[in-house]
């Protein structure tokens, strides 16, 4: 099949690490330290832009929608994620070690995959870690997703493995080149 570019936009000053959709909104996160929200596929004007006013935050590694108002962004070179409420134009930090990837489980629970091979189950409401496991042989957790309509999670890491986890974060199976 032929794929044709419909349009092209330069919307950040550095690499775009994250692009996610929530209803009619698009979220982008970049290593320039900005999180931007766009109306649909119109990348001409942002609905909302977030960055730390002191420019301390940088290197966004992932961003997710928690719901229509709340976004969570992981800042790779820092020891925290930022919970952003773009409707109220407020934000707060959530401590976690060098986050690389995020996965929404429910309105108040997320999984965070970290540089130190940990996967953390976190309660956003209480800003606390409920459970933490070693996951990828002391290598970074690069991605983590929830399988739709299942209580199964999939992670990938710099250990060259894909792992399946049950809802209690017990490893059910590991896939690598040898399998």
Describe the structure.
This protein is an all-beta fold. It is 0% helix and 55% strand. It is built from no helices and 16 strands. Strands 1-2-3-4 form a 4-stranded antiparallel beta sheet, with no helix packed on it. A 4-stranded antiparallel beta sheet has the order 5-6-7-8, with no helix packed on it. Strands 9-10-11-12 form a 4-stranded antiparallel beta sheet, with no helix packed on it. A hairpin with a 4-residue loop joins strand 5 and strand 6. The chain is globular. The two termini are 32 Å apart. The mean pLDDT is 82.
Molecular shape: globular
Strand content: over 45%
Label the structural class: mainly beta
**DSSP helix fraction:** under 10%
The count of helical stretches stands at 0
User: What is the radius of gyration computed over CA atoms, rounded to a whole number of angstroms?
Assistant: 17 Å
């Amino acid at each position: 099949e032929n794929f044709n570019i419909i349009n092209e936009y330069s919307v950040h000053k550095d690499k775009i690490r994250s692009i996610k959709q929530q209803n009619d909104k698009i979220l982008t996160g970049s290593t320039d330290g900005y999180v931007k929200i766009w109306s649909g596929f119109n990348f001409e004007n942002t609905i909302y832009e977030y960055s730390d006013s002191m420019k301390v935050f940088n290197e966004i590694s992932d961003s997710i929608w928690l719901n229509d108002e709340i976004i969570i962004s992981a800042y790779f070179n820092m020891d925290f994620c930022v919970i952003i409420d773009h409707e109220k134009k407020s934000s707060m930090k959530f401590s976690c070690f060098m986050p690389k990837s995020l996965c929404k489980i429910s309105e108040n629970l997320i999984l965070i995959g970290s540089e130190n091979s940990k996967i953390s189950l976190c309660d956003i409401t209480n800003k606390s870690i409920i459970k933490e496991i070693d996951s990828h042989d002391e290598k970074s957790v690069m991605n983590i997703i929830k399988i739709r309509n299942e209580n199964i999670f999939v992670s990938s890491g710099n250990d060259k493995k894909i792992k399946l986890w049950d809802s209690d974060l017990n490893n059910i199976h590991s896939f690598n080149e040898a399998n």
